[in-house]
Amino acid sequence: xxxxxxxARHAGRLARRSGSPTxxxxxxLVVLLHGxxxxxxxxxxxxxxxxxxxxxxVDFRGHGLxxxxxxxxxxxxxxxxxxxxxxxxxxxxxxAGHSLGGYVGLLAAARSDRIERVLAIDVKSxxxxxxxxxxxxxxxxxxxVQEDRAALLDRLARSLGRVELxxxxxxxxxxxxxxxxxxxxxxxxxRRVLASEPVDPFSFLDRVRCPVTVLAGAxxxxxxxxxxxxxxxxxxxxxxxxxxxxxxxxxxxxxELVAERILQLART
Length: 268
Known about the structure:
Layout: E1 4-11, E2 14-21, E3 29-33, E4 55-59, H1 74-88, E5 93-98, H2 100-111, E6 115-121, H3 129-138, H4 149-159, H5 167-177, E7 178-181, E8 184-187, E9 212-217, H6 225-233, E10 239-243, H7 250-253, H8 255-267
Parallel strand pairs: 3-4, 3-5, 5-6, 6-9, 9-10
Antiparallel strand pairs: 1-2, 2-4, 7-8
């Protein structure tokens, strides 16, 4: 990170990376939360643009370098976030969360005044029969071992959809996504994270009292524009922004826009 020292380590069950700028232009710490089956490395295009902002990016339980756990309920992710804030001894933070990360950030904001502002990026708000079937299949699933690491890299690239990364950027993602195993290689993330409970943000969004910005990709199949507007409309005073020509991974396709919105979070 430009102008900052970075460190990556385990904090209890959670792995994290913090940026400590030598010259801070904003006092509010920004917590970066990734999407389902992703990890903190997915902010690789955004973090270098956050010069002068204190950040901490987290690998959720069961993701990246964090420990696998017995439970992956949204309450678990929320408690992990609030426990981390307690460990860091910070009273108030801003949260920028992509997909699952935005959901967890808003859930925490509905229950705690320690979340001062939220940037919710392309958050899922519906639950389909296909989602329920995938959750059921994943309740006791494990990652398959493959002999060829390149095959997993290809699957990782395809999981990004329309996003194109350089070979170096793909290796940054692979570092926390793929690990050696007996007989070959496998994905690091716990497949049981897919055995999630139904998504139901409208059950708590009306309890969020902090300023919220909803940012969605115009071409996203996770949070299409109309759904983004309905989502923002459920939060008192929330604003909504649709990023033209961008899909679900807004943090990778429009990093300058995301960074600018995070800078606004930290400085407002």
